[in-house]
Structures are given as structure tokens and as C-alpha cells.
Amino acid sequence: MYAEWNDLSRIERKTENLSDRTIPLLDRIADLGDLQHGLEVTLARVRLIDDLDGLAGLGRRVDSLSQLFRENFSDREDTIAEELSSADADVFQNVVKGRQDIVAQNTKINALVSQAVDKILALEKSIVVAQIEFGNQQRDVQSRQEESLSVTWAIDTAKTLGEISGSVASLAILTKDFPLETGTGNTGTRQSLVAEINILASRLARLKNLEARHDIAGVLVDYRNTMLGPDGVVEALSALQTRQAGQEQLYGEAEAVLNNIGAWTRSSTQRAAMEFRQSAAETSRIVERIRFVDVAFNMCMLLISLALLWFMIEVRMISRIHRLTRHIQRMSRGHLEDPIDTAGSDEIAEIAKAVEKSRLTAAALQRSNEELERFAYVAAHDLRAPRRAISNLIEWTEEDFADEMPADAQINIGLIRNRTDRLSGHLSALLDYARAGQIDGEHGAFSLTKFAEELRLYFNSNSAFEIRVEQDCGPFGAYLTPLKTILINLISNASKHHDRSSGTIRMSSELYPNYVEITVADDGPGIPKQYQDQIFVLFQTLKSRDEVEGSGLGLALVQKLARSLGGSVSVVSNPDVARGTVFTVRVPLNTPSAKTPNDIQGLAA
């Protein structure tokens, strides 16, 4: 424990020493980060501001940043960066001043161009005055009847005035576009301007008899001085280009200073981080030694606790849960003879008691179902002998007394024969129903198309009903006898309970990953919704047996066979909307190796 306290004291001293060295450096880095950000924002804004007032405010901001710059990068021996000095702060002030000079020069150029435009307007007005003067002189010549002189002079003067107007229009265009040429040089535009002024002067010299030409000449001289004079637009644009080139150089110098600040900031940050890492590594080694003893002790205690906990869990929970799971799995496969251990008073014991109660209930239900099926089988089988004796007595009576028997007696004898035949059908259906849970038939590949061909031969006597396969998913594995029995009963019901002499029965099959779905649809009258649950009940029919011959066991047999296969059967019909009924049989895709008949009976139970 003493060694641990000693190591902790060493950690505390090293931490204080590290703080004394790095905190001032980090403060300086933070200040320089703010300075760099402020200078970068200022450098970006100075390019965008075009008015002197805004640049004046920005200049004050630059002065404060430059002062902070000088404080951090003063020319003293302990300067923090050899590449930087306080003189670099002047670069940013020069950038603002240079931008102010450019904005002032642009203002001057715009003013000169505006003056030149005014001169162009004055030239246009003077030309209008000359045209008026020319019109007056032309009328005077005509009044003196000097026709030959009048025509020649008028044509020359009018042509010259038109050419002068065209030259003034060209000067207007050159004046308007002249400031746009500053980016690429204005030598060509200047030459065009000089040439156009000279052309205008030569054309103006041909106006000998017009006094207005003196005004035009005076205005033209003023225009020429405004554009080409010592302080004209051309000279101002040349000076602007020089200042812009110098400004771009200042931008480059300012960006270089910013890059140096960033480089120093990054190197200082890395140096501080390295010192922190070194201190952290040494601290980590000391802490690791402190932690080793604690970890070793805690690990020993944890292993002991885990061993005790595992013993308790294994004894009290996991092994019991495994046993309970095995019992439930056996119950799901139909093995209900083994009792479940329900000892204990915890939650697992309560679950075991509930499962044991379910096992007893399922076993009792299984015995009840077996006894019921056995009784139905025995009763149906034993009743066949008396039914056969009654049929024989009726047949002998008809043979011996057919001529002497009154008409009413013959009718009664016929009714007895019909009832015994119906009883024979009931007994056969009852035997089928009793054997429905015993899936002992052949397992093989079932094809709906081949089965439909067999059905057409089976129902050959009732060829008015068409059996159509609309979709066949192909052969699939199934217990053939119960599946065929299901489909035969559904198709028989469809034709038997049809309200017309002919109809269509459609079948389809669709394969899914774990089951196959077969549908049997007819175009009969349909089944009202309130009777759709009743049709699967034993001995239930929607019509009297005198109207439709049937035992009332067909759909009950279908449902029992479907359940014995581990599947289901459902019905969809709505006579209020459309005719027809659709029965859907869904059975799992079983193979003999995957699910035995006993397993299927367990699922059905």
C-alpha cells in the first residue's frame, strides 16, 4: 500500500510539471488560432468590399489584429517562430490600403467614363443643332433658286452629317465597353478609339458652311482629353492594372504569412501532444503497476464467485431446464407416457407442474380420441351385418310378394331400401372417418395434372362438369391416399351441391418453402358466411338428405385428414357478391424420413 501511495505522488508531481510547461503553450496556440481565423476572414472580406466606408471599418479590425500579431511575433530572442516577425503584420494593413486605392481608382474611372458619356450626349445634341442649321441653309438656297448648287451641296452635307452621327454612335459603343477591357489590356480598344476620333475630325472638317461644327469640334476635344488625356480614362485604367497586380502580390504575401502561422500552430500542437503522450505513457506504466495487484486480487475473487454462481445455476436451473425441454420435445412427438419431475418450489417447478398437467390432459385426450375412433370403427363395422340382413329381407320380400303387394306397401318397401342404402353410405363414411387419423398410406410424388386426369375418368358419368387445372407447381412429396381422398371429397361436393346441370371445377397448386397450397374452386351457388363453420361438423348438411344424397361426413373427413397430415383446410365464399366457393388445403412438405405417421398423428391430436 505504501508503494502505491508513493507511485501516486510521483504521478501527481509529473502532472503538475507537465501542466506548467504545456498550459502556456496551449494558451498561445489558442490565441494564434483566433488570430489566424480573424486574418483569414479579413483577407476573404477585403476582396468583396467595394466601398471606402466598409474598407475603413475593416481597416480598424486589421489594426487590432496586427497589434495582436506584433505581440505574439515580436523581434526578440524568445520568438516562437523563426519564419515570422512583427513586420509581417504590415502585410495585412497594406492589403487593406491597396484595396482602398483600387476602390478609389475604380470610382475615379467611373466618374471619367460618366463624363465621357456626357460628352457623347453633347456631341449628339450638337449634331442635332447642325442638322437644324443645315435645314435652314437649304431653304435659303432654294429661295435664291440656285438649284444646281443646292442639290450638290445638300447631298454632300447630308452625307457628312450622317457619317458624323455614325462616328458618334461608334464612340458611344467604345466608351461603354472600354472599362470592360481592363482585364485583358486596352491597347486595341485605345487604337480603335483614336482612329474613330480622327475619322470624326476629318468628317467634321468637311462641314465648311455650318457654324455648329465649331461646337462639335470643341466637344470632341473635351471628349478626347477625357478619354486619352494625361488624367483620362486610359491612363487611369493603366494605373488600376498596376495597382491590381501589386494587390495580388500582397494577397500572396498575406497567404504565405497565414500558412506560416498554421504551420507553427500545427507543429506546436504536435509538440504539446507528444509531451502529453510521453507523460501519459509514463503515468500508464506507473498505474499499470498499481493496477496489477488489484487486478490479480479481484480476478481471484471473481473466479471464486463465478465458480459458486455456476454451481448454483447448473444445479438449480440449467440441468432442470434441459430435462424439461427434453420432456416437452417428446410430448410434441406424441410420447405422453413419461411423467415429469415437478419437485421444487421455484418458477421452474411451477412451469414443470403446468407442463405435467398439460401432459396428463393430452394423454387423456389421446386415449379418448383413440377410444372414440375405436368405438366408431367397431360400431360401423358391426352395424353392417344387421343392415345387410335388412337389405336381404327386403329383396326376398319383393321377390316373393311383388305381385300381391299393395301399392302403399311397395312405396314403403322402397323407402326402407333407400334408408338402408343411406345407412350403408353413412357406415362407410363413418369407417373412413374413423380410419382418417391413421396415415399408413404410400408416400410418393403427387402431380395435380395426373390426378386431374384420374378424376376425369372417375367422374366420367357426370361429364357435364369440367375439371380444369389452372396452375400446377409440379410433383411434390406427400402421403398420396389421404391427399387424394381430400381432393376427391371436395370435387364430389362441388358437383353434388351445384345448383346447375353443368359447371367448371378449377384446381391449382402453389409451392412454398415449407408447405404446398392446393385450391379447389367451383362456380356453384356458394356457401353463406353464417354456415361456413357448420359445414365441417359431423353429420351437418345445408340441404335435407332427400334433396341431396349425402352423409354429412365429407367435409369433416376432409378437415380430419388435413389435420392428420399436419395441415389445414379453409373456405372462402360470399354469395352476396359472387357465385362460387374456394376451398384451400395447405399441407406441409413432408418426407418419410423427416416425419413419420406417428409424428403426424401427434400433430393432429
From TrEMBL:
InterPro entries: BphY/WalK/GraS-like, HAMP_dom, HATPase_C_sf, HATPase_dom, His_kinase_dom, HisK_dim/P_dom, HisK_dim/P_sf, Sig_transdc_His_kin-like_C
Gene3D superfamilies per the UniProt record, alphabetical: 1.10.287.130, 6.10.340.10, Histidine kinase-like ATPase, C-terminal domain (3.30.565.10)
Histidine kinase domain location: 378-591
Chain segments annotated as transmembrane: 295-313
Domain of life per record: Bacteria
GO MF term set: phosphorelay response regulator activity; phosphorelay sensor kinase activity; protein kinase activator activity
Keyword terms: Kinase, Membrane, Phosphoprotein, Transferase, Transmembrane, Transmembrane helix
Domain HAMP positions: 315-367
Family annotation (Pfam families): HAMP, HATPase_c
GO biological process, one term: osmosensory signaling via phosphorelay pathway
Name of the top EC class for this enzyme: transferase
Enzyme Commission code: 2.7.13.3
Protein name listed in UniProt: histidine kinase
Species in which this protein is naturally found: Phaeobacter inhibens
